[in-house]
Design a protein that fits this description.
Layout lengths: L16 H19 L1 H35 L2 H8 L4 H14 L8 H9 L4 H9 L8 H8 L1 H25 L4
Helix pairs in contact: 1-2, 2-5, 4-6, 6-8, 7-8
Length: 175
């Protein structure tokens, strides 16, 4: 049946809500510019550098989102990253987390889209928690800290990622 949605499932959003944070920042910058233009200029330059560093990863994430929307259906995501996918889903989410690069915030929009398409909380948390393991940096870690430290640290990261993902999957929002 395609009747009206239950009142508890309808989300009311004001058109202004997404703009509150940027507007607040703009007001803060204007007030600071009045008090100290030199410091405000330094802050604006630093902010523009950060935006420049984040632009490419964000564009890549949005590009992946576009491709996901074109070619990946909710059934695909549920098949590989949904509830009950077992070891296969665990390895896919962990492997993708380990191989992912760039700032973590650039992955948030993509992970949100995957959740909307059927990925479980467990797999999203597993992806995020496994980002601390980077095989390309392992030789450098070994050079600085030695084999023993590096192997124990990596095994600890993988174990804690699994525990964290399990806790999020168990206590997270149920669908």
């Amino acid at each position: 049946m395609n009747g009206p949605a239950e009142p508890s499932t309808v989300k009311h959003r004001s058109g202004l809500n997404p703009w509150l944070f940027p507007l607040g920042i703009a007001v803060a910058y204007l007030m600071l510019a009045i008090l100290s233009w030199d410091r405000t200029l330094i802050s604006l330059i630093a902010s523009s550098r950060i935006l420049g560093q984040a632009a490419l990863p964000l564009l890549l994430a949005f590009g992946f989102m576009f491709l996901l929307n074109l070619y990946i259906s909710p059934a695909h995501v549920s098949k590989y990253l949904g509830h009950g996918t077992g070891l296969k889903g665990l390895l896919i989410s962990a492997g993708c987390g380990i191989m992912s690069m760039g700032p973590i915030f650039a992955w948030y929009p993509l992970l949100k889209l995957l959740k909307e398409k059927g990925a479980s909380d467990f797999h999203v948390a597993n992806f995020l928690a496994n980002r601390s393991v980077k095989p390309v940096l392992l030789p450098l870690m070994v050079a600085y800290f030695g084999w023993r430290f590096s192997l124990i640290f990596t095994a600890g990261c993988l174990t804690c990622a699994l525990l964290t993902a399990s806790a999020v999957g168990l206590f997270g929002r149920k669908r």
